[in-house]
């Protein structure tokens, strides 16, 4: 009987050890990166910011031209309204209302257009970053990689993590970019942005897997 008990106890210890080993083996390795930090050090970043600023300036110039024309006609109407016939006054008022509606519509369309331009400019950079994240995750055994920043409309989901889980510099090196030296002043983390458009639409930095 004692031999049976010893055998059973030994068997249970063996099974428990196996399960413990399997659990440790199956435990996911989690890393994180700062998407805005990485993007700010990519050579594409300055060009994206410049192109976006140029595009935004063009839209702003067109808008100001429309507004100035509206203000000029409005001033003319105010100055001569008392001398106008009812037909002319109503026609001028209708013209001003149409101009104001046109300005409001242009503003709405400009915002949408600027967001689309931003997405188009950022998408290649985010795809490049995603590939680097995937490569780093695969070569270093990371099961999941989270985005730790909240810039450019992205959601910060990481509140605390050990520094050795930060793969940002590894991602930069994977793309051939030399990270700033430890202790050196960090670059201003400012990803090119025109709106609250989330980079996650072009890249999924919260996982170690490519977008489907």
From TrEMBL:
<comment type="similarity">
    <text>Belongs to the Skp family.</text>
</comment>
<dbReference type="InterPro" id="IPR005632">
    <property type="entry name" value="Chaperone_Skp"/>
</dbReference>
<keyword id="KW-0732">Signal</keyword>
<dbReference type="GO" id="GO:0051082">
    <property type="term" value="F:unfolded protein binding"/>
</dbReference>
<dbReference type="Pfam" id="PF03938">
    <property type="entry name" value="OmpH"/>
</dbReference>
<feature type="coiled-coil region">
    <location>
        <begin position="89"/>
        <end position="123"/>
    </location>
</feature>
<feature type="compositionally biased region" description="Low complexity">
    <location>
        <begin position="179"/>
        <end position="194"/>
    </location>
</feature>
<dbReference type="GO" id="GO:0005829">
    <property type="term" value="C:cytosol"/>
</dbReference>
<dbReference type="GO" id="GO:0050821">
    <property type="term" value="P:protein stabilization"/>
</dbReference>
<protein>
    <recommendedName>
        <fullName>OmpH family outer membrane protein</fullName>
    </recommendedName>
</protein>
<dbReference type="InterPro" id="IPR024930">
    <property type="entry name" value="Skp_dom_sf"/>
</dbReference>
<feature type="signal peptide">
    <location>
        <begin position="1"/>
        <end position="23"/>
    </location>
</feature>
<keyword id="KW-0175">Coiled coil</keyword>
<feature type="region of interest" description="Disordered">
    <location>
        <begin position="179"/>
        <end position="212"/>
    </location>
</feature>
């Amino acid at each position: 009987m004692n031999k049976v008990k010893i055998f059973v106890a030994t068997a249970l210890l063996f099974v428990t050890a196996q399960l413990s080993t399997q659990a440790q083996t199956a435990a996911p390795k989690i890393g994180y990166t700062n998407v805005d930090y990485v993007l700010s050090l990519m050579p594409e970043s300055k060009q994206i910011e410049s192109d976006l600023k140029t595009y935004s300036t063009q839209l702003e110039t067109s808008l100001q031209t429309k507004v100035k024309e509206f203000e000029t006609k409005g001033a003319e109407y105010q100055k001569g309204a008392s001398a106008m016939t009812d037909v002319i006054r109503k026609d001028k008022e209708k013209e001003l209302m149409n101009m104001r509606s046109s300005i409001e519509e242009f503003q709405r369309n400009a915002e949408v257009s600027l967001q689309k331009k931003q997405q188009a400019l950022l998408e290649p950079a985010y795809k490049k970053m995603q590939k680097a994240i995937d490569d780093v995750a695969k070569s270093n055994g990371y099961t999941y990689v989270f985005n730790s920043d909240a810039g450019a409309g992205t959601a910060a989901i990481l509140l605390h993590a050990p520094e050795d889980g930060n793969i940002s510099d590894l991602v930069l090196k994977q793309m051939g970019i030399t990270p700033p030296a430890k202790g050196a002043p960090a670059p201003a983390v400012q990803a090119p942005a025109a709106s609250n458009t989330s980079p996650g639409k072009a890249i999924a930095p919260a996982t170690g897997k490519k977008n489907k």
